[in-house]
Design brief:
10 strands; Alpha/beta knot; six-stranded parallel β-sheet; 21% strand; alpha/beta; binds S-adenosylmethionine; four-stranded mixed β-sheet; 225 residues
Length: 225
Amino acid sequence: MFLHCCGMSPGTTVRLEGFHAVKHALRFAPECVEQVHVRDVEAVRTLCARLAPDVLAALLSRAEPADVAHHTGVEATARRPEQDRDVLQRRTAPLVLLDAPRSPGNAGAVVRVAAAAGASGVATTGTLDPWHPTVLRGSAGLHFALPVLHVESSEVSGPFVVLDADGDPAAAVPEGAVLVVGSERSGVGASLRARADLVLALPMRQGVSSLNLATAVAAVLYRGR
Ligand SMILES: C[S@@+](CC[C@H](N)C(=O)[O-])C[C@H]1O[C@@H](n2cnc3c(N)ncnc32)[C@H](O)[C@@H]1O
Protein backbone atom coordinates (compact mmCIF):
# COMPACT_ATOMS: atom_id res chain seq x y z
CA MET A 1 0.00 0.00 0.00
CA PHE A 2 1.65 3.21 -1.14
CA LEU A 3 -0.76 6.01 -0.31
CA HIS A 4 -0.54 7.81 3.01
CA CYS A 5 -2.52 10.89 3.92
CA CYS A 6 -0.87 14.10 5.07
CA GLY A 7 -1.23 14.23 8.80
CA MET A 8 1.81 15.34 10.76
CA SER A 9 2.44 19.03 11.18
CA PRO A 10 5.43 21.02 12.43
CA GLY A 11 6.06 20.34 16.10
CA THR A 12 4.94 16.72 15.83
CA THR A 13 7.37 14.19 17.23
CA VAL A 14 8.88 11.83 14.67
CA ARG A 15 10.83 8.63 15.21
CA LEU A 16 14.35 8.18 13.82
CA GLU A 17 15.38 4.58 13.27
CA GLY A 18 19.04 3.66 13.18
CA PHE A 19 22.41 5.23 13.85
CA HIS A 20 22.71 7.06 10.50
CA ALA A 21 19.31 8.74 10.81
CA VAL A 22 20.08 9.86 14.36
CA LYS A 23 23.57 11.03 13.36
CA HIS A 24 22.24 13.20 10.50
CA ALA A 25 19.52 14.74 12.64
CA LEU A 26 22.06 15.56 15.36
CA ARG A 27 24.42 17.03 12.80
CA PHE A 28 21.95 19.23 10.93
CA ALA A 29 19.29 20.10 13.54
CA PRO A 30 20.50 19.09 17.03
CA GLU A 31 17.86 21.33 18.63
CA CYS A 32 15.15 19.04 17.22
CA VAL A 33 16.50 15.78 18.66
CA GLU A 34 14.85 14.92 21.97
CA GLN A 35 15.71 11.47 23.35
CA VAL A 36 18.19 9.01 21.92
CA HIS A 37 17.44 5.40 22.84
CA VAL A 38 20.40 3.05 22.87
CA ARG A 39 20.58 -0.70 23.45
CA ASP A 40 24.15 -0.60 24.80
CA VAL A 41 25.74 2.74 25.67
CA GLU A 42 29.33 1.52 25.38
CA ALA A 43 28.73 -0.12 22.00
CA VAL A 44 27.15 3.08 20.66
CA ARG A 45 29.97 5.20 22.09
CA THR A 46 32.48 3.08 20.16
CA LEU A 47 30.40 3.17 16.95
CA CYS A 48 29.88 6.92 17.11
CA ALA A 49 33.51 7.68 18.00
CA ARG A 50 34.55 5.75 14.90
CA LEU A 51 31.93 6.94 12.39
CA ALA A 52 30.80 10.37 13.58
CA PRO A 53 32.93 11.83 16.38
CA ASP A 54 31.44 15.27 15.68
CA VAL A 55 28.08 14.21 17.15
CA LEU A 56 29.38 11.98 19.96
CA ALA A 57 28.84 14.48 22.78
CA ALA A 58 25.37 15.43 21.53
CA LEU A 59 24.37 11.78 21.24
CA LEU A 60 25.67 10.73 24.65
CA SER A 61 24.08 13.70 26.40
CA ARG A 62 20.65 12.51 25.19
CA ALA A 63 21.27 8.75 25.44
CA GLU A 64 18.96 6.56 27.50
CA PRO A 65 19.25 2.77 27.67
CA ALA A 66 16.21 1.11 26.08
CA ASP A 67 15.04 -1.98 24.28
CA VAL A 68 15.89 -0.86 20.72
CA ALA A 69 14.71 -2.90 17.74
CA HIS A 70 16.97 -1.39 15.06
CA HIS A 71 20.05 -3.47 14.27
CA THR A 72 22.41 -0.54 14.93
CA GLY A 73 21.06 -0.33 18.48
CA VAL A 74 20.10 3.36 18.17
CA GLU A 75 16.76 5.15 17.72
CA ALA A 76 15.59 8.62 18.66
CA THR A 77 12.61 10.89 18.88
CA ALA A 78 12.82 14.31 17.28
CA ARG A 79 10.60 17.32 16.89
CA ARG A 80 9.58 17.94 13.31
CA PRO A 81 11.06 21.39 12.50
CA GLU A 82 9.27 24.44 11.19
CA GLN A 83 9.89 24.51 7.44
CA ASP A 84 11.21 27.48 5.47
CA ARG A 85 8.45 28.12 2.93
CA ASP A 86 10.36 31.06 1.38
CA VAL A 87 12.18 28.45 -0.67
CA LEU A 88 8.97 28.01 -2.68
CA GLN A 89 9.36 31.56 -4.01
CA ARG A 90 13.10 32.21 -4.34
CA ARG A 91 16.28 30.17 -4.12
CA THR A 92 19.77 29.87 -5.59
CA ALA A 93 19.90 26.05 -5.73
CA PRO A 94 17.27 23.80 -7.37
CA LEU A 95 14.05 22.89 -5.56
CA VAL A 96 12.82 19.36 -6.27
CA LEU A 97 9.04 19.17 -6.70
CA LEU A 98 7.64 15.63 -6.68
CA ASP A 99 4.26 15.66 -8.36
CA ALA A 100 2.02 13.22 -6.46
CA PRO A 101 4.63 10.57 -5.65
CA ARG A 102 3.23 7.20 -4.54
CA SER A 103 6.16 5.35 -3.01
CA PRO A 104 7.44 6.59 0.36
CA GLY A 105 10.73 4.80 -0.30
CA ASN A 106 11.27 6.75 -3.53
CA ALA A 107 10.42 10.04 -1.81
CA GLY A 108 12.92 9.24 0.97
CA ALA A 109 15.63 8.48 -1.57
CA VAL A 110 14.93 11.85 -3.24
CA VAL A 111 15.28 13.72 0.08
CA ARG A 112 18.58 11.94 0.65
CA VAL A 113 20.11 12.81 -2.73
CA ALA A 114 18.67 16.35 -2.68
CA ALA A 115 20.38 16.95 0.67
CA ALA A 116 23.64 15.46 -0.57
CA ALA A 117 23.68 17.50 -3.78
CA GLY A 118 22.86 20.79 -2.06
CA ALA A 119 19.31 21.29 -3.37
CA SER A 120 17.37 24.04 -1.64
CA GLY A 121 14.49 21.75 -0.65
CA VAL A 122 12.06 18.99 -1.57
CA ALA A 123 8.36 19.66 -1.98
CA THR A 124 5.57 17.21 -2.76
CA THR A 125 2.05 17.52 -4.07
CA GLY A 126 -0.63 14.87 -3.64
CA THR A 127 -1.57 12.56 -0.81
CA LEU A 128 1.80 11.26 0.38
CA ASP A 129 2.99 12.92 3.59
CA PRO A 130 6.69 13.70 2.94
CA TRP A 131 7.27 13.23 6.70
CA HIS A 132 5.66 9.79 6.78
CA PRO A 133 7.83 7.33 8.80
CA THR A 134 8.70 5.32 5.70
CA VAL A 135 9.85 8.46 3.85
CA LEU A 136 11.99 9.35 6.88
CA ARG A 137 13.45 5.87 6.87
CA GLY A 138 14.47 6.29 3.22
CA SER A 139 16.20 9.62 3.78
CA ALA A 140 18.53 8.41 6.55
CA GLY A 141 17.54 11.39 8.68
CA LEU A 142 18.36 13.98 6.00
CA HIS A 143 14.90 15.54 6.36
CA PHE A 144 16.69 17.62 9.00
CA ALA A 145 19.20 19.00 6.47
CA LEU A 146 16.83 20.93 4.17
CA PRO A 147 13.17 22.00 3.97
CA VAL A 148 10.83 19.10 3.16
CA LEU A 149 7.33 20.36 2.51
CA HIS A 150 3.92 19.35 1.32
CA VAL A 151 2.59 22.05 -1.05
CA GLU A 152 -0.15 23.01 -3.44
CA SER A 153 1.57 23.52 -6.79
CA SER A 154 0.07 27.04 -6.98
CA GLU A 155 2.33 28.04 -4.03
CA VAL A 156 5.51 27.40 -6.04
CA SER A 157 7.18 29.96 -8.33
CA GLY A 158 9.39 28.88 -11.26
CA PRO A 159 11.30 28.67 -13.46
CA PHE A 160 9.90 25.16 -13.93
CA VAL A 161 11.98 22.39 -15.49
CA VAL A 162 9.83 19.32 -16.08
CA LEU A 163 11.76 16.04 -16.17
CA ASP A 164 10.36 13.77 -18.84
CA ALA A 165 11.83 11.08 -21.05
CA ASP A 166 10.28 12.80 -24.10
CA GLY A 167 11.97 16.15 -23.42
CA ASP A 168 15.11 17.85 -24.72
CA PRO A 169 18.34 16.13 -23.61
CA ALA A 170 20.34 19.30 -24.17
CA ALA A 171 18.16 21.65 -22.10
CA ALA A 172 20.19 23.77 -19.66
CA VAL A 173 18.69 23.99 -16.15
CA PRO A 174 18.51 27.62 -14.91
CA GLU A 175 19.94 28.36 -11.47
CA GLY A 176 17.33 28.00 -8.76
CA ALA A 177 14.90 26.16 -11.03
CA VAL A 178 12.09 23.94 -9.79
CA LEU A 179 12.78 20.39 -10.98
CA VAL A 180 9.36 18.84 -11.49
CA VAL A 181 9.40 15.05 -11.24
CA GLY A 182 6.44 12.86 -12.06
CA SER A 183 4.78 10.05 -10.19
CA GLU A 184 5.81 6.44 -10.65
CA ARG A 185 2.72 5.55 -12.63
CA SER A 186 1.61 8.62 -14.57
CA GLY A 187 4.54 11.03 -14.80
CA VAL A 188 4.08 14.80 -14.40
CA GLY A 189 0.43 15.88 -14.24
CA ALA A 190 -1.14 18.20 -16.81
CA SER A 191 -1.26 21.32 -14.62
CA LEU A 192 2.47 21.35 -13.82
CA ARG A 193 3.35 20.27 -17.34
CA ALA A 194 1.48 23.32 -18.63
CA ARG A 195 3.74 25.56 -16.51
CA ALA A 196 7.01 24.08 -17.87
CA ASP A 197 9.62 26.61 -19.01
CA LEU A 198 11.51 23.66 -20.44
CA VAL A 199 11.28 19.87 -20.52
CA LEU A 200 14.50 17.98 -19.84
CA ALA A 201 15.16 14.35 -20.81
CA LEU A 202 17.89 12.04 -19.61
CA PRO A 203 18.79 9.95 -22.65
CA MET A 204 18.16 6.23 -22.28
CA ARG A 205 19.00 3.17 -24.32
CA GLN A 206 16.25 2.18 -26.76
CA GLY A 207 13.65 -0.04 -25.12
CA VAL A 208 14.03 1.42 -21.62
CA SER A 209 10.87 3.36 -20.70
CA SER A 210 11.99 5.37 -17.70
CA LEU A 211 14.38 5.77 -14.80
CA ASN A 212 13.33 5.45 -11.18
CA LEU A 213 12.37 8.96 -10.11
CA ALA A 214 15.08 9.24 -7.45
CA THR A 215 17.67 8.15 -10.00
CA ALA A 216 16.41 10.84 -12.41
CA VAL A 217 16.67 13.49 -9.67
CA ALA A 218 20.21 12.35 -8.82
CA ALA A 219 21.34 12.48 -12.43
CA VAL A 220 20.01 16.02 -12.96
CA LEU A 221 21.27 17.41 -9.65
CA TYR A 222 24.76 16.06 -10.27
CA ARG A 223 24.80 16.89 -13.99
CA GLY A 224 26.19 20.37 -13.54
CA ARG A 225 28.53 19.70 -10.62
C1 LIG B 1 9.10 6.22 -13.22
S1 LIG B 1 9.06 7.71 -14.07
C2 LIG B 1 7.38 7.80 -14.63
C3 LIG B 1 7.09 6.97 -15.75
C4 LIG B 1 5.66 7.15 -16.18
N1 LIG B 1 5.13 5.90 -16.59
C5 LIG B 1 5.47 8.21 -17.24
O1 LIG B 1 4.53 8.07 -17.98
O2 LIG B 1 6.19 9.20 -17.31
C6 LIG B 1 8.98 8.94 -12.80
C7 LIG B 1 9.51 10.28 -13.19
O3 LIG B 1 10.94 10.23 -13.27
C8 LIG B 1 11.39 11.17 -14.23
N2 LIG B 1 12.11 10.44 -15.26
C9 LIG B 1 12.24 9.10 -15.38
N3 LIG B 1 13.01 8.80 -16.43
C10 LIG B 1 13.37 9.98 -17.01
C11 LIG B 1 14.19 10.34 -18.15
N4 LIG B 1 14.79 9.43 -18.90
N5 LIG B 1 14.34 11.65 -18.42
C12 LIG B 1 13.78 12.60 -17.64
N6 LIG B 1 13.00 12.32 -16.57
C13 LIG B 1 12.81 11.04 -16.26
C14 LIG B 1 10.16 11.86 -14.80
O4 LIG B 1 9.89 13.06 -14.12
C15 LIG B 1 9.08 10.82 -14.53
O5 LIG B 1 7.80 11.40 -14.50
